Amino acid sequence: MDRGKDQTTEIQQWVHDIRTHLHVMLAALGMLESGIELAEKREAYWQTLRRNLLAAIHLSDHILRAPQSNGEKSGQWLDVSALLEQVCQSFLPCAQRYGVELLSDIAAGLTALCDGETLQRVAFNLISNAIRYTPTDGIVHVLAAQSGEETVLCVSDTGKGIAPEVCQALCCGEGGEGLGLQIVSRLVRELGGTLQCKSELGVGTTFAVRLPAET
Predict the structure, then answer these.
(1) Listed residue (115, 123, 56) closest to 91, CA to CA
(2) What is the mean pLDDT of residues 34-49?
(3) What integer best gives the mean pLDDT of the chain?
């Protein structure tokens, strides 16, 4: 019974992530339909549409395979820098739609021993939440760097903030506000990493994901 409940919860989380990809696609489509962007930006938006459509299809395949899946994923050395750059590019039209400035500061050559799809879902949910809860003219900053033997991803925003007890619950894997952050908390544990949250109500929030890095 518990196994069936866990499987239902995971499917709900996959559906949540599919919706995130669809919202990114709608934002890119809206910018294309506006007809005000330069040619090079239009090409980038078409690429965003294609990447997120493929990602949504891939997640849909996971749902269809769920009854046969054992939940195990193989980890390998991943080019974290390239993955995060691509995720940030995907969210540019979404940030423009919400009137939020999306900044990225991603060091080159970052690697981690982990599953790429899982890390992508973590980044997608953190950035999506940050943009959604940051007011117009606010800033979302994505930073990635190596710190000692860890690769660190930080997503900061100037949004409404999160209560301290919610931050604590997320970092301890006990749930929290919104399905997106619950997904992040679970997936970071699956990656063998740690999740840190620092927030001040009315000021903003910073999430830090720490993963084992290649040394």
Answers:
(1) 123
(2) 75
(3) 83
